[in-house]
Amino acid sequence: MPIKRNRFLAGLLALLIPGLGALYNARVKKALLYLFGFPVLGVLAAATAYLQSWLWLSIAMYVTLVTFRILVVVEQIRLAGRGVESLSQFNRWFYYFGFFLLASFIDYGVTTALKMAFQGRAGIVFQIPTASMEPTVDRRDIVIIDKQVRELKRGDIIVFWAPTPTSNGFSPKPKPTLYMKRVIGLPGDTIDLSNGRPIINGQEPPEPYVTQQATMSLFEEMFQNEPRAFNKFIEKFFPPEPISVPKGTYFVMGDNRMESYDSRHFGPIPEEVIEGTIAFHFGSGDYHK
């Protein structure tokens, strides 16, 4: 004769911890399957949430996860109502307690791993709001930032908090806005932008990531009927005097030279506002690391 189980308790246990309801109903193999299966699905759903082009997959996985959890609860309630042929040898309080500890350990491990992955080394998920880094990183591409900033090299792509220029340099409290640009000048460099192209310490570096440099003819065409705007942009984009990059700062520019608000406007940025470099890039841009 089947041994009846408490349906409310079976559903509650299944809801609280994946697999615990199945263990209560003497379904040990299912209990282990649920115990390890749900965290795996959760990790996959969390990972795909960072991929813009896979957003539909992430939503589908979360819906599947919630639906599956509800179905498992319903299943355990029905099994409890029908009863079990015999109670498992694991139907002891210490096995339930051990199962709870194991589930807690798995949950803690998964949570810690995700936290370390996305808040430690790679701490910020950043969606590109502008076209200033095209064609390397397109608008609405997604990047994950490596916050362990090491010694920066010329050509590195960095993410930094928008500086707030003041009469004495930079405000210690930057704007709460993230910018992404490429390092052009290092501390101690001298940069000549008089012809629109950066000449660094007397040499013009190769820039395969720039498809269109800022040129005087382009600005003349753009502002042929706006002399004031023309003079304003010429002053920023074609400064007559070389720029010296002070110690502890970096001169940055966007790859889309005609549509980038960068060090040509606000000067070299202090290293304190730099948040990190790109760890992962998801999108259609032709990424050059």
Structure description:
This protein is an alpha+beta fold and 289 residues long. Helices cover 40% and strands 18% of the residues. The chain contains eight helices and twelve strands. The strands form three sheets. It has a seven-stranded antiparallel sheet. Strands 8-7-9 form a three-stranded antiparallel sheet, with no helix packed on it. Helix 3 (28-48) packs parallel to helix 5 (93-121).
Question: What is the strand and helix layout of this fold?
Answer:
Elements: H1 7-16, H2 20-24, H3 28-48, H4 55-82, H5 93-121, E1 122-127, E2 142-146, E3 157-161, E4 165-166, E5 169-170, E6 178-185, E7 190-192, E8 199-200, H6 216-222, H7 227-237, E9 243-244, E10 249-253, H8 263-266, E11 269-270, E12 274-282
Antiparallel strand pairs: 1-2, 2-12, 3-6, 3-12, 4-5, 6-10, 7-8, 7-9, 10-11
Helix pairs in contact: 1-4, 3-4, 3-5
Beta percentage is 15-25%
Distance separating the two termini: 68 Å
Tell me the major beta sheet.
7 strands, antiparallel
**What is the residue-averaged pLDDT?**
79
Give the H and E element order: HHHHHEEEEEEEEHHEEHEE
Number of helices: 8
Oligomer: single chain
- Beta strands, count: 12
Gyration radius from CA atoms, angstroms: 29 Å
Structural class: alpha+beta
Helix fraction by DSSP (H/I, runs of at least 4): 25-40%
Which term fits the overall shape?
elongated
Low-confidence stretches: none
Physical arrangement of strands within the biggest beta sheet: 1-2-12-3-6-10-11
Summarize the structure.
With about 290 residues, this protein is of the alpha+beta class. It has eight helices and twelve strands. β7 and β8 form a beta hairpin.
